Every structure is written in C-alpha cells, then in structure tokens.
C-alpha cells in the first residue's frame, strides 16, 4: 500500500493562535487582523513543508455574509474560512468527526493546534491529537532553526550530540518549562 504524501493533517485554529502568540498579537494590534493572518500563514509555510504536514489554518467567517472558502497557499498550506454563522471550532470538530471514520486515519495523523480547552477535549475525544499554541510556536521556531542550520551547511555545529545544547539559554529554559508543563 502506498504511503500518504503527508505525515499528518494539521488543523490550526487561526484566531486562537493569533491570540496566543505575542508576536501575532502585536501585529494584530498595530497592523490589523489581516496582517496577523498573513504573518501566521508565513510562519506555517516552512514548518508545514519541513514536517511534511498538510496544514489547514481555519478562520471564523461567521460574521461575514459570504460562504466559506479555501485558499491554497502552497502544496502544504491552505487557509480555510468557515461558512456564514459557522465557527472555526465547529469546522474543526466536524473535520475530526469525519476523519474518525476515514480509512486515512490508519496512515496519517490528525493534529489540532489550539489552546482552547473545550476544543482540546472535543478533538481528543474524536481521536485526533492536540497541540497547544505554545507548543506549535516552539515547533515552528525549532523547524526554522534547523532549516537555517541546514542551509549554512552545518557550520558551527556543536560537538555535543543533543539538539538542546545548540539552543540559546533562553530557548533552553523555555523548553525546560514546557517539558515540566509550566507553559
């Protein structure tokens, strides 16, 4: 049986992530919501390709009078706007419910990135994996770091075999706090 082209499907609760990442909050507050959405998409393009994820960033369009839409940004990233009067949460829950009965679940993972506690419990109940907004941020930053190192050709590699030893001290502390469940 051929393997799927992507390791996992990643559903990102767009406005939840914008509200959780301080950099995106700042962009939203200074440049507007459209700029924050664009910056989130830019952050996820490289990460999705690096991880081999089929990423869908979901935004509420419940206050718009238009039908839902989907915009393919890259092969690995699409932006989904929900239908009128539909929230991103219901879109994600419906996708998880449909995936639960899909044969792809035996070949692919379904991951939902959100820090909404109720949403977390619901998607896990449907058999999807959950990733917090802060975990997604840490993974995005780590993937970007790995890509930069690979582009440099491995120059400046640490003789230590652990990846964490090559991170700056602030990043090491942040990862340690996350590992202990403090973030």
Report on the structure:
The protein contains seven helices and six strands; from the N terminus they run βαααβββαβαβαα. With 183 residues, it is an alpha/beta fold. It has two domains: 8-151, Rossmann fold (3-Layer(aba) Sandwich); 156-183. Helix 3 packs across helix 6. The radius of gyration is 17 Å and the shape is globular. 31% of the residues are buried. The model has no long low-confidence stretch (mean pLDDT 84).
Number of strands: 6
Mean pLDDT: 84
For the biggest β-sheet, the strand order reads 3-4-2-1-5-6
Helices and strands: which structural class? alpha/beta
Binned strand content: 15-25%
Low-confidence stretches: none
- How large, in whole angstroms, is the Cα Rg? 17 Å
The CATH class of the largest domain: Alpha Beta
Q: What's the architecture of the largest domain, going by CATH?
A: 3-Layer(aba) Sandwich
CATH topology value of the largest domain? Rossmann fold
Inertia-based shape:
globular
How many separate domains? 2
Summary of the model, kept short:
By secondary structure, the protein is of the alpha/beta class.
Task: Give a quick set of tags describing it.
2 domains; 6-stranded mixed beta sheet; Rossmann fold
């Amino acid at each position: 049986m051929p393997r799927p082209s992507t390791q996992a499907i990643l559903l990102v609760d767009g406005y939840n992530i914008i509200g959780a990442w301080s950099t995106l909050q700042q962009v939203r507050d200074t440049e507007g919501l459209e700029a924050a959405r664009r910056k989130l998409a830019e952050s996820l393009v490289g990460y999705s390709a690096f991880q081999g994820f089929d990423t869908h960033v979901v935004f509420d369009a419940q206050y718009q009078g238009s039908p839902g839409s989907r915009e393919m940004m890259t092969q690995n990233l699409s932006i989904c706007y929900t239908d009128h009067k539909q929230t991103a949460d219901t879109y994600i829950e419906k996708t998880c419910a449909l995936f639960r009965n899909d044969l792809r679940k035996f070949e692919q993972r379904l991951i939902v990135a959100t820090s909404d506690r109720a949403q977390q419990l619901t998607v896990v109940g449907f058999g999807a994996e959950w990733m917090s907004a802060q975990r997604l941020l840490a993974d995005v930053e780590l993937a970007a770091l790995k890509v930069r190192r690979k582009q440099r050709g491995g120059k400046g590699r640490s003789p230590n075999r652990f990846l964490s030893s090559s991170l700056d001290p602030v990043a090491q502390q942040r990862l340690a706090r996350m590992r202990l469940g403090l973030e």
